[in-house]
Amino acid sequence: MTLTVSPDMELLPPNEHEVAALDAWWRASMYLTVGQIYLRANALLLEPLTADHIKPRLLGHWGTSPGLAFVYAHVSRLISRTGQQCIYLAGPGHGGPALVAASWLEGSYTEIYPDVTRDAEGMQRLFRQFSTPGGIPSHVSVTTPGSIHEGGELGYVLVHAFGAVMDNPDLLAVAVVGDGEAETAPLEGSWKGISFLNPARDGAVLPVLHLNDAKISGPTVLGRKPPEEVRALFAGHGYDVVEVEGSDLPGMHHRFAAALVECWQRIRTIQQSARTGAWDGERPRWPMIVLRTPKGWTGPHEVDGVAIEGTFRSHQVPLSGVRENPAHLALLEEWMKSYRPSELFDELGRPTTGGVTPDGDLRMSASPHAGGGDDSPSLVLRDFRQYAVELVTPGVQQVESTRRLGQMLRDVYLDNPETFRLFCPDETNSNRLGDVLTASDRAFMESLLPDDERLSHEGRVMEVLSEHNCHGWLEGYTLTGRHGVFATYEAFAMVSASQTVQHSKWLEESLVLPWRAAVPSLNVLLTSTAWRNDHNGFSHQGPGLIGVMLNHRAEVTRVYLPPDANCLLSVADHCLRSRDYVNLIVIDKQPQLQYLTIDEATAHCAAGAGTWEWAGNADGAQEPDIVLACAGDTPTLETVAAAQILRERLPELRTRVVNVVDLMVLPRPTDHPHGLSSELFTRLFTDDVDVVFAFHGFPGAVHQLVHGRPDADRFHVRGFIEHGTTTTPFDMTVLNRISRFHLVMDALNNSRTTLPGADELRTWCRHELDRHAAHVREHMEDLPEIREWRVTARG
């Protein structure tokens, strides 16, 4: 829906009738909020409140809720007057009861959960379910209509808001930032979103910094700063700051309504200027609101002689002993009745607070944008085979695999100019994805200089040196129905790993909610991996995100380790088409050997794992003496090289080489839907032959995955063991005991057969390792036969 109002439309200040309606809606929301925290019965207080009416465990957060409800009421009035499409993101996620109350008052909660009716009985259900077993969480969680942001882990409200409005020109994301949240590193960095927002193409974010000067046990930094310093801080970020302060009523309603109208009109002026050709190209100064209200506004002012309202003591449950303390119980009843519920609900408990709530999909709790997007389109994808490496012989040709992916993503940009973006922390070219820059420049709204390359106001490739921003933008982008990829250096994916965790949790919970639309998957590409960060050193060598991923539910988790370019293309095509997953793809950007034709790669990736008969010498159904397994590009190289050494120097030893591209085939089918059947697992790994498994990440991950498989102790996993430095590529494998020579010795030590010549081969391997150590320190590069090694055909 396109707005039909103009920025100079006169939005009159609210008249007395509108102020009364705003205040009634706000009071109703706060009554419902307090009821959710405290009551298990007597929802409308039709009888004197007793201890039996109180929940046995009091959970929830009161302090931020009045401010959240206040802003929500006023934004709803703005929507009703203008038709503006809005979503509401509550950074103080503990204000969950306020947002649940809002959706109940708007009617969307009952539409989704019909048993929570809009009457006394439904109100009672609303209260009983909050923060109780079998009920709903205390946060603005995935169960809350209209939410795309939980806020349980603070710091991401603005990045989600900015991601939501990219390529979404008619959407306004109102993002309430708590002043406790404002102290987190991710939030501090996320104000820069306006440096990438194009008013001609994108929607707008209206930040509301809610300063109530208190977190759980003390003051907040911004809450205690002088107003002029706060103003200067955000003016320096490029915002026009509009300030509203107070607790007086109805004055606060008038002041905030005026501030909101002023901000909205500024936003519309900026957008219409950009969309009608009148824009001068300078980065706009977008508005933001600094709202100062007391913590726990309208709650108990004082309890037992101690100040509550306006202090940190109102953060959670201001009256925590109401079941045991009659005086506190009386204070609770007085508090709830101060909202005058008889004016807010009729005799049947139905809300009478009309006049503020917008209609239909314009209700923020019913916005299609917050439900996965309105008919979220699938990507237009060309046949990935057209980007394939032409291969004749495996293990001879070297290619930068991610460069082929860059060619594919270039065309995804061209074919999906409003529904796909790449998010990357200043590393698009470094990660060999630079072909996308021939389809779209990098986005940048600050000043442009003649020496800039592929940088423009119209660009849609997102680069900012912040994993938090990139990850969060993509989350907001996908949760509102669009598609994308977050590409970063492997080690620094751990900077935003907690965001990956939180997004996984969101998807896990959304799967059980039929009203939540399937959203495009969160696709994470890790390159510049542990094994090839030889020039950066130990700080850049860390494959930890794989292990983080494995701890999430199987319905959501996908981990892919393509060994070459053609496998990468097949995996990427699958991931870009998928929904409701977190897809982790790990492959290095450096030139690497190529093993499979595009048809072989497609079949291999579909199976998830397979035997490479050309690499081993246990043909067909022949039982091997040892299985050499691998997952990851460098482990695959070393495994194939080890198998070749064994073929050439000890041909009597029967080896089978198994490559795993989909890590989730290793668990049992009962543990993951991609898990190989017992028959297929046995066909690859046998039931009793030892397996030397060269793995990209920490060895414990594979042990975790094969738990429950036949004789899991026979899996001897070699992987990254936290040894690294600035060194050569092959020396990294030596330091972590995953080199071809280590794998050969492991194979000899664990083979079911002891063959003549095994001892001599062990001695030779140790000699080669010694020779490597001497050479690499003298010549500062790997041995020529290591650097130039290629697969030789079996004789």
From TrEMBL:
<dbReference type="GO" id="GO:0005975">
    <property type="term" value="P:carbohydrate metabolic process"/>
</dbReference>
<feature type="region of interest" description="Disordered">
    <location>
        <begin position="346"/>
        <end position="377"/>
    </location>
</feature>
<dbReference type="InterPro" id="IPR018970">
    <property type="entry name" value="Xul5P/Fru6P_PKetolase_N"/>
</dbReference>
<dbReference type="GO" id="GO:0000287">
    <property type="term" value="F:magnesium ion binding"/>
</dbReference>
<dbReference type="GO" id="GO:0016832">
    <property type="term" value="F:aldehyde-lyase activity"/>
</dbReference>
<keyword id="KW-0456">Lyase</keyword>
<dbReference type="InterPro" id="IPR005593">
    <property type="entry name" value="Xul5P/Fru6P_PKetolase"/>
</dbReference>
<dbReference type="Pfam" id="PF09363">
    <property type="entry name" value="XFP_C"/>
</dbReference>
<protein>
    <submittedName>
        <fullName>Phosphoketolase family protein</fullName>
    </submittedName>
</protein>
<dbReference type="InterPro" id="IPR018969">
    <property type="entry name" value="Xul5P/Fru6P_PKetolase_C"/>
</dbReference>
<dbReference type="InterPro" id="IPR019790">
    <property type="entry name" value="Xul5P/Fru6P_PKetolase_CS"/>
</dbReference>
<dbReference type="InterPro" id="IPR019789">
    <property type="entry name" value="Xul5P/Fru6P_PKetolase_ThDP_BS"/>
</dbReference>
<keyword id="KW-0786">Thiamine pyrophosphate</keyword>
<dbReference type="Pfam" id="PF09364">
    <property type="entry name" value="XFP_N"/>
</dbReference>
<comment type="similarity">
    <text>Belongs to the XFP family.</text>
</comment>
<feature type="domain" description="Xylulose 5-phosphate/Fructose 6-phosphate phosphoketolase N-terminal">
    <location>
        <begin position="16"/>
        <end position="373"/>
    </location>
</feature>
<feature type="domain" description="Xylulose 5-phosphate/Fructose 6-phosphate phosphoketolase C-terminal">
    <location>
        <begin position="589"/>
        <end position="790"/>
    </location>
</feature>
<dbReference type="InterPro" id="IPR029061">
    <property type="entry name" value="THDP-binding"/>
</dbReference>
<dbReference type="Pfam" id="PF03894">
    <property type="entry name" value="XFP"/>
</dbReference>
<dbReference type="InterPro" id="IPR009014">
    <property type="entry name" value="Transketo_C/PFOR_II"/>
</dbReference>
